[in-house]
Every structure is written in C-alpha cells, then in structure tokens.
Amino acid sequence: MTSRKIETTTEQWDKLPTIPGVHDILSTNLHARRFTLSLPNRIDSKNGNPIVLILHYWGDPTPYYGRPLIETLYQPNWHELDAIMIAPESSGGSWADETNEGYAIELFKTIVRTYKADKKRTLVTGYSAGALGSCHYSHHYPELFSAAIPIAGFPTQYEPLPIPARYLLSEEDELFPFSQFQEMISSIKDTVSTEIVSVNARSHYDISAFSNAVSESLPWIKSFWTWF
User: Fold this and answer.
1) Radius of gyration of the chain from Cα atoms?
2) Tens of pLDDT, residues 35-78
3) In 74-111, which positions are buried (b, 16+ CB within 10 angstroms) versus exposed (e)?
4) Are 147 and 174 within 8 A, CB to CB?
5) What was the pLDDT predicted at 188?
6) Is the pLDDT confidence value at 209 over 50?
7) Is 195 helix (H, G, I), strand (E, B) or coil?
C-alpha cells in the first residue's frame, strides 16, 4: 500500500490523491483537521465507487488515529468492495460532539463529491466510541448511508436505526456485552433489518478478534447495495 502525506486547501481539492493506497492528509480547508483516506486499485469514474466512513475508538487522538482500523480491520477484509474509505480524526470526546460531527459529515460529503462516489453504496462503521458514532450518524443522516456496522459498542438507550444495521459484539466485552444488547432489543420490534453477530473476543480491546466477523459481513453489505 502507498502512503504519503499531502496538505490541501479550499482551492486544491483537485490535488487529493488519485493513486491507490492509504494516504494521511492534513486538510486546511476543513478546519485544519487530519484524516486518513484509502483509495482502491480502480476509481470508477462512470458508476462511482462505494464509500465507507470509519470512526475510531476512544482515547486521546494521536495523528491519524483512525489509520490502524483501515489497515488492520477494514481494508484487508473489504478490499473486494473497491470502496473508498475515510477515517477522520476526532478532536477528542464523542463523535456526537458538534465539532466532531460537523467535521466528519462535511468530510464525508466532500469525498463523495470529489471522487464522484456512488451515493447508493455507502456505509458508516466504527469501533467502540466509533460504534456509538455510527449509530448517531445513522439516526441523524439516514439519507447519507445505506447501512451501518457498529463494532464493540451500542447506545445505552437503544432505538432501532432507520437503515439496515449489523452489530458485531462479544460476550466477553466488559463495556458493551453481547447479552446486554440482546436483552435491550428483545422487546423492540425493528421495522428495518437489524442483525447481531456474536464475536469470540477476549475483551473490549481485542480488536483483531473482530477481523473474521468484518470479513463475513461482505454478503450482508452487498445485499443492501444496489449492484455488484
């Protein structure tokens, strides 16, 4: 995979990378914020590529904090989707924070527009705090995303998402256990498809254990996208 850092300005969106690989980008036209962008081997200028918004976990973000999720969890398992993947870096705290939310959604829309991505094949996902963020964005921007995959996290007050969702959770998760979520949703009737997958992970922090479940989500993703 290719890696490089570029700096953009409002007038320079045409200088965003076009070569395949993972790119760390400092954006001066989006509040001087950082994000990681993964481009597939082929950019489909006619039909548009799928696009995936990836939200990182809790912690004090270091530069390009979401890049490890792209490189270890998503890109190796979803490379056949030929998707554009973006992982914004939060300013700390919740993805529902007004500043983080505004940045992530503005970035998503900008990348969709810049690369002419397929608006019918979109997905929001994330790990831990990113899972909570993916639920929040699904509720507030259902017109932007066709499906959601929250990993190792769920809201304390569950409301069915307005788009198809697939939760990847572990029984051994000390923060968000599978059984707790099952109990929460047992009396709620979803009108949109919702799946829960039990993952054999040692703890909340055993990120690599979710790799197989992410890979096995491919048929589910494709079932909600219009063509493949």
Assistant:
1) 17
2) 999 999 999 988 999 999 999 999 999 999 999 999 999 999 99
3) bbebbeebbbbbbbbbbeeeebbeeebbebbbbbbebb
4) no
5) 79
6) yes
7) strand
d(CA 102, CA 91): 12
pLDDT one-digit tens code per residue, 66-98: 999 999 999 999 999 999 999 999 998 899 999
Calpha distance 180→175 (Å, rounded): 10
Q: Is 32 left (phi over 0), alpha (psi -120 to 50) or beta?
A: left
Sequence-distant (6+) residues with CB within 8 A of 120 are 146, 225, 226
Displacement of CA 228 from its chain's centroid (Å): 20
**Is residue 87 helix, strand or coil?**
strand
CA distance 213 to 26: 32
Residue 30 has pLDDT above 90, yes or no: no
pLDDT confidence tier of residue 4, bands split at 50, 70 and 90: very low
**Which DSSP category does 51 fall into?**
E
With vertex at residue 216, the alpha carbon angle to CA 215 and CA 217, rounded to the nearest 5 degrees, is 90
Q: 3-state DSSP: the chain helix, strand, coil percent, rounded to 5? A: 30, 20, 45
